[in-house]
Amino acid sequence: MSSLVVGSVALDTVETPYGRADDALGGTAVYFSLAASLFTAVQLVGVVGDDFPESGIELLRSRGVDLAGLQRRQGETFRWVGEYHHDMNVAHTLDTRLNVFETFHPTIPESYRDAEFVFLGNIDPELQLEVLRQVRQPKLTTLDTMNFWIERKRDALTEVIQRVDAVLINDAEIREYTGCYNVLKAASQLQDAGPRYIIVKRGEYGAILFAGDDIFLVPAFPTWDVRDTTGAGDSFAGGFLGYLDRCSSVNPPDLRAAVVYGTVLASFTVEDFSVRGLERADSAGMHERYGRMAAITRVDAAAPTVQRDLVREGV
Q1: Which strands form 19-26's sheet, in the order they lie side by side?
Q2: Which residue segments constitute the domains of the chain, with CATH numbers given?
Q3: Mean pLDDT (10-residue bins), the chain, 315 residues
Q4: Secondary structure string (H, E, C) spanning 271-290
Q5: pTM for the whole thing?
Q6: CA distance 48 to 152
């Protein structure tokens, strides 16, 4: 078992109504890896500069993340500066400095190329295509993207979409890409392009899985203390793919369970700045939250007594 992630490794400066973190560990590949490592071995491909803190490397290694694919270059690590106002679903970018990430090209180590589960993080779709050309026969390839690539590199993004098995995208992005406001119709349109599975992220409102004709909706885990939503989507992806890798299955029940585990891992992330919430996550806490999700979303398939009476009476 192993999941391959290709994406950014960053140092983020984030301010929200609940505090601030400076030059904190972040990036798609980091959040994904820490979440997925609770289920499976993770192989990380990315790039950092010579200013990247050793503590970040030690944290990833302590969670069993394979860093043979992490390039180290002279220069500064990718940095993102952002802030959130009271709508924690919306990040406001104040500054982005690509630094060594600007010339990054993913080189997949030979030992990674047989990975069965591949996550193409939110990076240039041309780089995502480079990854697809290097892996062999993965069981599931999953793509994440953002409005920047939809607007700037639509043709390359469309080519990636046509080649992957699953697309992870938020509701605003799927509307922008398809031009369709109704998310159900937009997901169907996206499936027609090639992917078997579409997962629409809805922030504090949860997520929707589209698998063929099957639709599964899950709410966000009820979290009382939301401090920083940065990395929640990447943590969701780590929980989602990590679980599927652990059970080596993409059948409908496991896909549904994977969406719930993704939601659970995202809930740990938003409870603190940077990766601190994920650092506190463990197997026991994760499964306890999964059980709570099952309890609060359970619906009795049999009609209650009053409802059955109303049906008999034709009301």
Answers
A1: 19-26, 10-16, 78-84, 91-97
A2: 3-312 (3.40.1190.20)
A3: 94 96 97 98 98 97 97 97 92 94 96 97 96 96 93 95 96 95 96 96 94 94 94 97 95 95 97 97 96 90 63 59
A4: CCCCCHHHHHCCHHHHHHHH
A5: 0.94
A6: 25
